[in-house]
Design goal:
Helices cover about 25% and strands about 25% of the residues. By secondary structure, the chain is of the alpha+beta class.
Length: about 200
């Protein structure tokens, strides 16, 4: 019979990561990139349906500059726009050529948002951010901490245009229910470093 003993701190850490995994899995099953607040990004694949206009119905890839190109409507900037905002803009542009266009957009693929986790986690690497995730959830996706990780000194590097800012994350405080506001929502391009 094999008996494994853990310190109370190690057991609590294991339990917290396990709960975060369960929460993350549940969130992934429910969350959807077609939520009304999802903003299109380069690399996304969208399906454009124009009712009774099969020649305008197509799949479109959002280009690296954030634009899509559509017959009659021309080049359209999708940067920082939701699918509903893009629908409205396409309707307005097509209204010059099509009588009362009915436009629907759905997201077929999300490829434009990534978060990076480096350091002492079990699965470091690049993770697709296809739904809203916070720091605990991405740490869960990265498989939790390795035995020698300094979980109380995690750094999140975020780019803001040409500048970068560093945010700190102290897992021990979160584990004790303190300073919970440091569990921020992640953005495209964020990098977590676990020393």
């Amino acid at each position: 019979m094999l008996v494994i003993t853990y310190s109370r701190h190690a057991f609590r850490r294991f339990l917290a990561v396990l709960l975060a995994c369960c929460y993350s899995y549940t969130t992934m099953a429910v969350a959807d990139s077609t939520s009304p607040n999802y903003q299109l990004k380069p690399g996304d694949i969208i399906e454009l349906l124009v009712w009774k206009e099969p020649e305008l119905t197509r799949d479109l890839l959002v280009a690296p500059d954030g634009f899509i190109s559509l017959p009659l409507a021309g080049a359209i900037d999708t940067n920082q726009k939701t699918t509903q905002q893009l629908c409205d803009e396409i309707k307005n542009k097509l209204a010059k050529f099509v009588n009362a266009p009915s436009v629907n957009i759905s997201i077929k693929g999300v490829a434009g948002s990534n978060v990076y986790v480096l350091g002492k986690v079990n699965r470091p690497g690049e993770f697709i951010l296809n739904q809203p995730l916070d720091v605990l959830q991405i740490l869960s996706k990265a498989g939790g901490f390795t035995p020698y990780a300094d979980a109380d000194d995690i750094h999140i590097i975020r780019r803001n245009g040409k500048t970068q800012e560093v945010k700190k994350f102290n897992y021990g405080q979160i584990e004790r229910g303190k300073n919970i506001d440091q569990n921020i929502m992640l953005q495209d391009g964020d990098t977590l470093i676990v020393p």
